[in-house]
What we know:
Alpha-Beta Plaits; Aminopeptidase; 6-stranded antiparallel sheet
Amino acid sequence: MTDRSVPSAQRLHRHHWRRDVVELAALFCAVAVADAIANLVVHGPRGPILLVASAVALLVTAAFHTWWARRHSHAPPPDGTAPGDTARSEGPARSVAPAESVAPAPGATAATSALWRMRTTVRDEPGSLAALCTALARRGVDILTLQTHPLPEGGTVDEFLLRAPHQLPSSELTRTVARAGGHSTWIERADAHDLVDTPTRVLGLATRTALDAAELPLALRQLLGRCTIHSIPATTLSGRPNAAADAPVEGVLEATVMRLRDPSGGAITVERPYLPFTPTEFARARALVELDARLGPRVPRRQDVLTLPEGNEITVRRADSADQAAARAMHDRCSERTLGLRYHGPVSDADAYLGHLLSPRFGRTLAATTASGRLVALGHLLWDGDETEVALLIEDEWQRRGIGSELLRRLISMAVEAGCDSVYAVTRASNTGMVAAMRGLGLPLDYQIEEGTLVITARLGATPVVSRLPYELPREQQSPHPRP
């Protein structure tokens, strides 16, 4: 194959003789003008005046050129040419990147941009999404992730993770989307945790659910965003069927509310009033619930052996419904005063209460057992809609030994891991042991007292340090024989 392209050296010198002729003619003209001016200055009557006037004209011209150059030095280069890279017609062509393709300096993007999560509905027709993306690009908005949620009645809900200029407010983003054809737009600020793509996040939530049955409500909340989740038992504490727990196997989706059949009995209700659920989100939630049903009851079997100051050893582990008989036996050994401080009154049906408290669907429970396997204390972390409650019950002869404080610190650590903003404890104002344990957390506390009932709320602004019992020799061991 013959290369017919002209070498760059030939292109550079092909027409140079014409430029040389022009430069030579200009030089002759300049010599002639200089000779005329010299004769005029030497032989003319006003030669010195004309010389001074010429010098002044040259100075004025130089000053004007300097001012003009400074005024237009920051003008954008034509045709995407970088500053200082003026294209020459006689020189070889050069490829210059546009200004917007230049990578910003490290840290510049985080300082001048903001992350947003946005959801909008567009028409289900070709070009609608392209028009929306083009409108965002014109405002300098970068689309980091995009998910589409088809709607059965037509249209598509598009969910974006955006990086927008910091000076661009959310209202202007909403107006830009509306002009591009989007409606029912919802937007809120995002953070670095939202940069994880959806498949990775869903797999992580499925893993957590597979390891611990108590993770299902938390996994649903993280999957669906800010929402309220209620676990409704199949029966009330009085033993009657609960009408609100009647949910079909396939579940029910009603705009901002979804109801799912709980594999352990009852129903799970998820509410998000500010944003309707899509069929895609409903399908993801059902998949997590189905995974929980297939795996059956499960709880992590890790246990810690702690040594009390007097030398006795106790084991702290997770508890579930399999511990109901041992928990009932501990109940029978507790005094009426201890049960009254825990339940704020007489307990008519301990089995119903314990069945609810030990179910992993309503929270997490820690149990403290002696070396002989006798259960002597229970600590509960209970999901209460958007709030979280902590509660303790310690057998009388094992009180005032630091067991309650140890269980409480571990429950607080679980609440922090679950993303809770605060926890509260409800007790009697005379329960000095619970008050001392809450104060020992080192967290900001709020107190509310009404008719002898004390509500203590701890704000979890920072992760508390789980300190162990004094003088203890901790060691962790795995249970060689998992309980049924």
